[in-house]
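thought: fold this chain, then report.
action: predict
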Amino acid sequence: MIMKKRQVVMKSRDGANGRADASTTSSSVLTRVRYGECQKNHATNIGGYAVDGCREFMASGEEDTNGELICAACGCHRNFHRREVETEVVCKYSSPNSSSSHRGQ
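observation:
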């Protein structure tokens, strides 16, 4: 039995919103793209509607090959699968006084 991995694309962007405050704020945007069920209509040429029932995209080849874009379960291109995007914004804030100590009082 050969185990296939489903394709998940992760993108990350860092930024501090271009501000120069006394405090430090940094944010990171994490985007996760997952490909769900196949939506290819196999009965288009006869005027009907029929999908193959493939529930999730699984790449048939390794990364950076043509097989990366073909589903191992149904044989369709990845673009026929429903695209699900999850975006998470992570903000980190540190106050200007959090790292300094109070000496000489």
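thought: worth noting. DSSP finds no helices and three strands in the chain.
final: tokens above.
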